[in-house]
Design brief:
Strand order of the largest sheet: 1-2
Oligomer: single chain
Distance between the termini: 35 Å
Low-confidence stretches: 219-239
Helix content: over 70%
Number of domains: 1
């Protein structure tokens, strides 16, 4: 019976070690000096992550009142803005956060490019960042269609028609996204599913890899030849 507490203590220590490894992987014990300068990164990556969290939170709230049908989609949004408490505020935050995320992500990519942070073994993470930017654009486009007003209807019509010009897979893509020969309920359902299920899953996966890869290369990716000047992070100073 005396072995049971020892076994539990050992398991607890293993769990704590694993958690510390995950945390330190995202937030290393020591940081390069230039990483602490706000004028180097301008906090664009962190701002983009914060906007993504805001979008996820407000998006979940909007799902409770949005009805993804061609007859009720627009009316449900109007009801949300006029009759639901703080409904208009939540939708406005979601809308403008989505637009701001495009700007912040684009500026973040420019910062990474002009500072050369994509070099020295970080090309894959750079490509992941480019794919994330494209994913954000698709997020905004699919969200633009969900109110299913006249603008959304014709945007869906034009976008699906353009896909037909893609060689080999164009016709299949049009049939899949359009849900049939005509734009209608199946089209709205497809774009809604892509917006609330497919894209979030891709985003979480790619962002996890993006931050995880940064944890691996944080020391040599920011200093640019000044890796000898490392400073303890705040979390390490508190130990």
């Amino acid at each position: 019976m005396a072995e049971q507490p020892v076994g539990r203590l050992h398991d607890r220590q293993n769990m704590r070690a694993a958690a510390n490894n995950i945390i330190l992987h995202l937030h290393p014990v020591r940081m390069p000096e230039s990483a602490l300068r706000f004028t180097y990164t301008w906090g664009l990556g962190g701002t983009a992550a914060l906007l993504a969290v805001i979008l996820a939170t407000t998006g979940v709230l909007l799902v409770f009142r949005y009805e993804p049908t061609v007859d009720r989609a627009y009316l449900s949004i109007q009801t949300m803005e006029t009759q639901v408490l703080f409904g208009a505020l939540v939708r406005s935050i979601h809308h403008w956060s989505g637009n701001l995320l495009i700007v912040v992500a684009y500026l973040h990519m420019l910062r990474v490019f002009f500072t050369g942070s994509y070099k020295k073994g970080r090309a894959i993470n750079w490509l992941v960042g480019l794919f994330l930017l494209a994913l954000i654009l698709v997020f905004n486009f699919t969200g633009y269609l969900l109110p299913w007003d006249q603008q959304a209807y014709w945007a869906a019509t034009v976008s699906t028609s353009l896909l037909a010009y893609i060689p080999i897979v164009g016709a299949t893509a049009v049939t899949f996204l359009g849900g049939g020969p005509e734009i209608g309920q199946a089209t709205l359902s497809n774009f809604y599913a892509i917006h609330v299920a497919v894209l979030p899953a891709l985003l979480v996966t790619l962002v996890s890899y993006h931050f995880g890869s940064l944890g691996i290369h944080v020391v040599d990716s920011i200093c640019g030849g000044q890796t000898n000047r490392l400073y303890p992070s705040k979390s390490n100073q508190m130990r």
